[in-house]
Structure formats: structure tokens, C-alpha cells
């Protein structure tokens, strides 16, 4: 099927004619051809999807915006198997204002048809319950469950909350109905509008009360203002510059994606949500689809939307959300300042939730995510290989290969190499030889999908060394057609500790990226330990073989044969001539020489 270089929507179908994936493209021909090109660049899920595609159709539109609108509409209509689709299955929470005569404020898990006023829904129970509790303390609202006016003056003395200034004691007639209802109204304004506007009004009311010599009321207003300001200072997340915005961050691990959303109004966090879905596409495309899908299940769209990275088709998405909101919407990625800090907070939440979901620690998921961002990778590296060379002035030249899967050592996939191509000291040639041998094995096993070992293609290669090692290995990857594998070096500082990451074009500072720095340092220490351990064993065998060569008629090859057969020098010492003759190349005369060397 010939495809046009026009914007539109493509529809993939299986052999039964069922729609399994819907996507949009700025240029249909370019986008669809990506799916049917080299499969090495695709995730397992994309490869499986493409294998199931029997036929596809397309619809040409006039702009990328129209393509996005049509894509969203078709996805909602057909719910294809492989499309990202957020499921709005979370429990809702509400803020309830009950009563007409004496109002009452509470947090509720469900909305009842009881004539009360409900604010919401909100998806974060913590945000709702915390906000209501804060408002009740600030405005001294009763939390005892008494019903007014029925329970007024049943007891002459108020409860403890009155004496610690956390209740105005309407039960004892300490406050009028009008004042109580005003306090409830102010509490609702505080929850829904934040602290700034309510503080301004309360200060105005306090001044008016003082001018009328109503000092007791002025003092109560002063206490409420102080409580609001104290609460605002306690909050860890307050955006003073942008009063109303949503913050999005996406984290990926083990083929799963977590979308975290923080929602702010009047500089105050009022709701948080998270969703899990499959990693079916590149991260910019995933962000676009997730954000579009999110606002299809949420009515309130803020003027500002902060995102943690590149968003594909950002102009069309902005136009779509602006049209839905009826006012301008700005989508941006903050680089510094408090909004960048909010992005980091949101990303940390996504990492923690995803870690629980895939059975890892939040630190590991966050470290891989940070490393991917630092190195400019499309997604966090699930399978990392690392290499180091070890020798003593060129003697006993060996290499170690270790694997970290999901941010943790995978010792069953570790491999050792003895440098065979040359003798002497040349770390660059050694590294090139090791990677050549490793990918020769990969080519032999290509097509046999493996979870680890030489048949597994790594998501990232880290070499112990700098730009020299990287430049020595780049031609090797290119010769195998594997230049798409990200390749970097791990540079050590003066104290033999990780200092930077080296690429073919220079060095990338890593010290200020704490989580990624810790992960890379762990990898560098582990690969160094593994290669040095192998070098020392080989060196010990060499020294042992040298003692055997002191025996008349025993050279290096026969010494190696003896060690290979008996494993240790002690076993050779204990062997009789008959046992020694069983070793290939050891004659009766040589066996007597060996026996006499140790026994006479």
C-alpha cells in the first residue's frame, strides 16, 4: 500500500479484521514505515504487535491537530489492545458541606443524594482528609460529631478542644450561628482557593473589628491568620510563581510506564494521581498520548501544564486542550527553579509507585530513569553490560564482563575473557578484542530470543575507561551493525572514584546527579572487582605453573596439562607414577622425574 506524506491516522488490524492499534502521524508514510523497518530498535511489545498486523488502513486529514482529535476519538470508540488507555478506576473522595441552619464540614468517600453540597471528586484521599483537618483546626470547627442546634448547651462546659484553641465551642453557646457558618464558608474558601485570598479578607475583617473595638473577634481572626500562615510554611510543596497548574512526570521500568500527576490551585497541592500502562512507543509519543488521554477523563484543565520531557506533537496537543478549556493552555518543560523541583518531586512519586508495581525499589527505578535522562536515552536501560581490563604490566591480560538488570547485578550473566590476540599491554586493543568476541557470539545466536548472556542485546554498554576506550570499541559495534547500542565510558578521578561519563565526543559530568552517580559507581566498582579477581586467579596459576617448569622435561604446555588434570600442585605431589602417566604427554620417564622432584 502506497502511503502519502500527509498528516493522518493509521489503523492496524489483525487477521480477523479487528483493530489492534490506532496512531496519528504528521507524515503517514514516514511513521508507518518505522514499524516495518528494523525490528532490533523496537520493544518486545511493539515487535509482537507488528507480528499480529495483517492489514492496515489510514485516513488523511488536513493538519496534525485534526489527526490528534481523530486519533483520540477512534481510540475511545474502539479501545484497541495495544493503545495506551488510562483507566479511571480509582476511588473518589469528596468534601461535604452539610446543613442549612448550622453548617458542617467533613471528608467523605462517596457522594450521597442527601441534599448536602459536595466538592470534588478528588482522587487523593490523603489530600482531601488533610485539607479538611487543616481547615477545621484553623477555623476552630467542631469535630466531635454533635448536631446543632439540638446539642447546644446540653453540657455547660466545652470540651478540651476549646481550651487548646481548636474549637469555637458552639455546643456551649460560645459562638453564634452566623459566626459559625461564616467560619465554615472561610474554611471552604481556604480548601478550594488556597491561603492568599482568604488571608487578605481575614486581615481586612480583623482591622474592621479592631476599629469597632471588637477586640475578642479581632484576636480570633488574628489567630486564624497565624494558623493559615503557619500551615502554608509547613507545606513542602508550594508554587508561588504559578498559581494554577498540573505537573506531569513519566517513569518507565520493565516495559511498564507510570504517569504521575500533581494538581495545584492557588499555589497549593490539592490532588495527586498516578496510572500504569504499557511502554508501547517512544517516550515523547507516550507523553503526548498520556496527557491527551488524561484530560479526556478530567474536566478541569489548568492554564499551565508542566511536563518532565519532550512531548510529540506539542502544538496540536496544546490546540486540543486550549479548545477544550476555552482559554489558552501552555505546555512547557521547566529547566530550573521551583517548577523544576516540582517536576523532580513528581518524577520521584512516579518512580516509587512504579517500583512497587514491578517489584523493585524506588531508588533503583529513579536511578535508571535519571541515568537515561543524563545520557539522552529514549528509555531507561533495563539490561546494562560493563567491561574492564586487568593485567600486571601486560602479563596475564584478562577482561571481565558484568551485567546489571533492572539496576541490580545479574551474576549468572557475568563472563570472563583471556586476551588472546596479542601479548603485552594495550587496553584499547584488549577492549576491542573482547567486544568483538562478545558480539561474534551474539551473531551466532541472533534470532534466538534470550533473557541473558551472549544472546541478549544490551540496552547500554559501560566501559571502565575514558574516551580512548570508547573510540576503540565504536568501530567494533559499527562492524556488527550495532551502532544503535548506547556506548559510554566510566571515568575515574584522582582518588580512583567515578568522576564522569565519557562519550565519543567528550565527558558528561555526573557528580550532581546523585542517584545516577551511585548506580554508575556501583557498576564500575563491581566490574573492576570481577576483572581483578579473575586476573589474580590467572596470575596464581601462572606462578604455580612456573614451579612445575623447574622439573626436568616439563615445559609450559605439560605444566598446564598437569594442572588441568590434577587441579592443584598438592594433588600432583601426592600422585604416584602410574597416576601421573594418565596425563596426556606425560611419559613413564617424565612421571618418575615429577615424583622424584617432590619425594627425593
Short characterization:
The protein has helices at residues 28-35, 44-51, 64-78, 125-138, 160-163, 177-193, 195-211, 215-234, 283-294, 314-325, 337-358, 362-375, 427-445, 467-479, 514-548, 556-566, 569-574, 577-580, 588-599; strands at 8-13, 19-25, 55-60, 93-98, 104-108, 117-122, 245-253, 256-265, 268-278, 304-307, 330-332, 383-392, 395-405, 408-409, 415-418, 460-464, 487-492, 498-503, 506-509.
Textual characterization of the structure:
By secondary structure, the chain is of the alpha+beta class. The protein has 5 domains: 8-78, GIY-YIG endonuclease, CATH 3.40.1440; 95-234, no CATH class; 245-359, Nucleotidyltransferase, domain 5; 383-540, UvrC, RNAse H endonuclease domain (Nucleotidyltransferase, domain 5); 549-599, 5' to 3' exonuclease, C-terminal subdomain (DNA polymerase, domain 1). It contains 19 helices and 19 strands. The protein has helices spanning 28-35, 44-51, 64-78, 125-138, 160-163, 177-193, 195-211, 215-234, 283-294, 314-325, 337-358, 362-375, 427-445, 467-479, 514-548, 556-566, 569-574, 577-580, 588-599; strands at residues 8-13, 19-25, 55-60, 93-98, 104-108, 117-122, 245-253, 256-265, 268-278, 304-307, 330-332, 383-392, 395-405, 408-409, 415-418, 460-464, 487-492, 498-503, 506-509. The chain starts with 7 loop residues before the first strand and ends with a helix. Residues 234-239 have low confidence and may be disordered.
Total E-strand runs: 19
**What portion of the residues fall into strands of 2 or more residues?**
15-25%
What would the average pLDDT be, to the nearest integer?
83
Specify the helix fraction band. 40-55%
Q: Oligomer, anyone?
A: single chain
CATH superfamily of the largest domain: UvrC, RNAse H endonuclease domain
Uncertain parts: 234-239
Structural class: alpha+beta
- Named CATH topology of the largest domain: Nucleotidyltransferase, domain 5
- The rounded distance between the terminal residues' Cα atoms is 87 Å
Major pleated sheet: 8 strands, mixed
- What CATH architecture of the largest domain do you see? 2-Layer Sandwich
What's the CATH C level of the largest domain?
A: Alpha Beta
As for the number of domains, it is 5
| Total helical segments | 19
**Shape assignment:** elongated
Gyration radius, in Å: 35 Å
Amino acid at each position: 500500500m502506497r502511503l502519502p506524506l500527509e498528516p493522518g491516522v493509521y489503523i492496524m488490524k489483525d487477521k480477523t479484521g479487528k483493530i489492534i492499534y490506532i496512531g496519528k502521524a504528521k507524515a503517514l508514510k514516514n511513521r508507518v514505515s518505522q514499524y516495518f523497518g528494523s525490528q532490533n530498535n523496537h520493544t518486545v511489545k511493539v515487535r509482537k504487535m507488528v507480528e499480529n498486523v495483517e492489514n492496515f488502513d489510514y485516513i488523511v486529514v488536513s493538519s496534525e491537530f485534526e489527526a490528534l482529535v481523530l486519533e483520540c476519538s477512534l481510540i475511545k470508540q474502539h479501545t484497541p489492545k495495544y493503545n495506551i488507555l488510562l483507566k479511571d478506576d480509582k476511588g473518589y473522595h469528596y468534601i461535604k458541606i452539610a446543613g442549612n441552619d448550622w453548617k458542617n464540614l467533613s471528608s467523605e468517600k462517596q457522594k450521597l443524594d442527601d441534599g448536602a453540597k459536595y466538592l470534588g471528586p478528588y482522587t487523593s484521599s490523603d489530600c482531601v482528609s488533610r485539607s479538611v483537618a487543616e481547615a477545621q483546626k484553623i477555623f476552630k470547627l467542631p469535630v466531635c460529631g454533635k448536631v446543632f442546634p439540638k446539642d447546644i448547651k446540653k453540657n455547660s462546659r466545652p470540651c478540651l478542644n476549646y481550651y487548646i484553641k481548636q474549637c469555637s465551642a458552639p455546643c456551649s453557646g460560645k459562638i453564634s450561628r452566623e459566626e459559625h457558618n461564616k467560619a465554615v464558608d472561610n474554611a471552604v474558601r481556604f480548601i478550594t482557593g488556597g491561603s492568599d485570598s482568604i488571608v487578605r479578607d481575614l486581615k481586612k475583617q480583623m482591622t474592621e473589628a479592631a476599629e469597632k473595638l471588637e477586640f475578642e473577634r479581632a484576636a480570633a481572626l488574628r489567630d486564624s491568620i497565624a494558623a493559615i500562615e503557619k500551615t502554608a510554611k509547613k507545606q513542602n510543596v508550594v508554587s508561588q510563581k504559578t498559581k494554577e497548574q498540573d505537573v506531569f512526570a513519566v517513569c518507565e521500568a520493565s516495559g511498564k510506564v507510570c504517569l504521575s500527576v500533581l494538581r495545584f490551585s492557588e499555589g497549593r497541592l490539592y490532588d495527586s494521581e498516578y496510572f500504569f500502562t504499557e511502554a508501547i512507543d517512544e517516550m515523547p509519543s507516550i507523553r503526548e498520548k498520556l496527557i491527551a488521554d488524561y484530560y479526556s477523563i478530567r474536566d478541569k484543565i489548568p492554564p499551565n501544564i508542566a511536563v518532565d520531557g519532550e512531548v510529540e506533537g506539542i502544538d496540536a496537543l496544546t490546540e486540543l486542550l486550549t479548545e477544550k478549556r476555552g482559554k489558552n493552555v501552555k505546555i512547557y518543560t521547566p529547566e530550573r527553579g521551583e517548577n523544576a523541583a516540582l517536576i523532580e518531586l513528581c518524577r520521584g512519586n512516579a518512580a516509587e509507585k512504579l517500583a512497587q508495581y514491578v517489584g523493585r525499589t524506588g531508588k533503583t527505578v529513579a536511578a535508571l530513569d535519571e541515568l537515561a535522562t543524563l545520557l539522552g536515552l529514549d528509555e531507561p536501560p533495563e539490561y546494562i553490560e560493563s567491561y574492564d581490563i586487568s593485567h600486571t604490566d601486560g602479563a596475564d591480560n584478562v577482561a571481565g564482563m558484568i551485567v546489571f538488570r533492572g539496576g541490580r547485578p545479574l551474576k549468572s550473566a557475568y563472563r570472563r575473557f583471556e586476551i588472546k590476540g596479542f601479548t603485552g599491554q594495550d587496553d584499547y586493543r584488549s577492549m576491542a578484542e573482547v567486544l568483538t568476541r562478545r558480539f561474534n557470539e551474539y551473531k551466532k545466536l541472533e534470532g534466538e530470543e534470550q533473557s541473558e548472556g551472549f544472546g541478549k542485546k544490551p540496552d547500554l554498554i559501560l566501559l571502565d575507561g575514558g574516551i580512548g576506550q570508547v573510540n576503540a570499541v565504536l568501530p567494533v559495534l559499527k562492524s556488527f551493525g550495532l551502532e544503535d547500542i548506547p556506548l559510554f565510558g566510566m571515568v575515574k578521578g584522582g582518588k580512583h572514584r567515578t568522576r564522569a561519563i565519557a562519550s565519543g565526543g567528550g565527558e558528561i559530568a555526573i557528580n550532581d546527579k546523585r542517584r545516577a552517580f551511585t548506580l554508575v559507581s556501583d557498576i564500575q566498582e563491581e566490574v573492576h572487582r570481577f576483572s581483578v579477581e579473575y586476573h589474580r586467579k590467572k596470575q596464581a596459576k601462572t606462578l604455580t605453573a612456573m614451579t612445575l617448569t623447574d622439573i626436568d622435561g616439563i615445559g609450559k604446555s605439560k605444566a598446564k596439562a598437569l594442572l588441568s588434570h590434577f587441579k592443584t600442585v598438592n594433588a600432583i605431589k601426592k600422585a604416584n607414577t602410574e597416576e601421573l602417566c594418565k596425563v596426556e604427554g606425560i611419559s613413564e620417564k617424565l612421571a618418575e622425574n615429577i615424583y622424584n622432584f617432590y619425594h627425593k
